[in-house]
Amino acid sequence: MQALRALDVWVAALWWGGLTVVGFGVVPLLFVHLPTPAMAGTMAATLFSALNVLALLCGLCLLVFLKLNQPLALIHQARTAIFYVVSGMLIALLLEWVVAPRIVARQDLRLWHSVGTLLYALQWVLTTLIFKNRVAARKSNGA
Questions:
Q1: What is the phi/psi pair of residue 2, to 5°?
Q2: What angle do CA 104, 47, 66 make, to 5 degrees?
Q3: How many Å apart are CA 33 and CA 73, to the nearest integer?
Q4: Does the pLDDT at position 68 exceed 60?
C-alpha cells in the first residue's frame, strides 16, 4: 500500500523524464546522426506525438491520485499541483493538435517551431514543478 501512495511521484518523474530525455537528448541527436534534416524532423514529430500521449496519460493519472490520495492538511499543495497538471495537459493538446500539424505542413515553419519550442519548455518547467510538489507532499506526509 505504501508503494501505491508514492505512485504519484513516480508518474510525475516519468512525465518529466520523458520530456527531458526526448527533448533535450534524443531529438538533438537525431539531427546530428540522421542523413537529412527532413528524416530527423519526421522522427522527431513521431517522438513528440508519443510524448504528448504520455503527458495526457500521466496527467490523468496524477489528477486521479491527487483527488483520491490527499490528507486534508495537504489540500493547498494538491490544488497547486492540479493547476500545474491541467496546464501541462493543455499544452500537450496544443502541441499535438495546433502546433505539430503546422510544423509538419511546413506552414510558417519559423513561427510555429518557435511556438512549439516555447510551449515544450513551459511544459518541462511545469513538470519540474509537479515533480517537486509531489516530492514535497510526500515529505510533508511523512511517507
A1: -60, -40
A2: 115
A3: 51
A4: yes
